[in-house]
Amino acid sequence: MTTVSIIGNGNMGTAIGGIVTAGGNNVEFIGRDADAAINGDIVVLAVGYPAVAEVIAAHGDKLAGKVVVDITNPLNFETFDSLVVPADGSAAAVIAEALPASSVLKAFNTNFAATLAGNTVGDNAATTVHIAGDSADAKALLGSVLQAGGVASVDAGALARARELEAIGFLQLTLAVQEKIGWNAGFALIK
Amino acid sequence: MTTVSIIGNGNMGTAIGGIVTAGGNNVEFIGRDADAAINGDIVVLAVGYPAVAEVIAAHGDKLAGKVVVDITNPLNFETFDSLVVPADGSAAAVIAEALPASSVLKAFNTNFAATLAGNTVGDNAATTVHIAGDSADAKALLGSVLQAGGVASVDAGALARARELEAIGFLQLTLAVQEKIGWNAGFALIK
């Protein structure tokens, strides 16, 4: 039994929590209360990128030794024309630097919430969660929780590949806001 | 009737040429002969990124006023861990700078050749060609040639989005060389 702590209860956190419980694992939702205990083996930072620093300030010490999952798409939402992280880096890299005692993964940022809740991209394509990270054990743990919940995942490589995953998330968001794709659709990984 | 000149006769150039002729438009294949005439309204640089500079040196003057399509994935193929273009740029941006009198588009780099030849990603998903560029007319011209050939395309935005398209191509190649996806598969855009 794996416990997953989800910080944030928006549509992404809710969808991820649904997968975890569908697989028979435990979920706890954590708010912004800095005194809240965090019991999860995996902690999902299910907040927007601008809120991540605040979450780390509130909870960072309790994340040591845990698998921490960054799901953010760090867009400049005013211009929709760039990311707000360094061009040769990623939100995940920024978070990993802030949490040196945690195993940071990038995951879920290429999945719209509806594709996680429904486990399909559009009508027919299976949802796949890309997982990037430098710890094979951490990636395997998250992958096993997803598999238990019936959701496919793929090892996208080292945490450095978060840069490419964030590029996919960025482009996918620009296509969705222009209504070129639906919010229940986007990029499906076909094997 | 649109004429498309394709420089390079590898599997990508061949597949793109097949789409053009399927739509009733003209194709001419151009080799490295610097004296060759280039008659196309659209010129596809269907060579690997390391060969692009040589192609531009040979043919660049003849590309003025034309739509030039960059299909490259500028990977460091020794490390498979980075691109060889500036982190805040793209191969398309490098090419556009070298060809200021051309309308440069990024397209096809997220499509494996077999997905263009067969018009499907894997068994069931439709192929979509992402087209990024700063000229709406140029994007519409290429899109119409693809549509005539039965292949869907999407306007991926300004040429700056080539950076994200190259990130997708990069990640897709890393997944294929590790046999996590097939060379007839990869990212499908579901609407």
UniProtKB/TrEMBL annotation, chains A, B:
The keyword Oxidoreductase is assigned to this record: yes
GO molecular function, one term: oxidoreductase activity
Gene3D superfamilies assigned to the protein according to its UniProt record, in alphabetical order: NAD(P)-binding Rossmann-like Domain
Entry keywords, A to Z: Oxidoreductase
SUPFAM superfamilies: NAD(P)-binding Rossmann-fold domains
Residue ranges of every copy of the Pyrroline-5-carboxylate reductase catalytic N-terminal domain listed in the record: 32-74
Name by which UniProt lists this protein: Pyrroline-5-carboxylate reductase catalytic N-terminal domain-containing protein
Source organism of this protein record: Microterricola viridarii
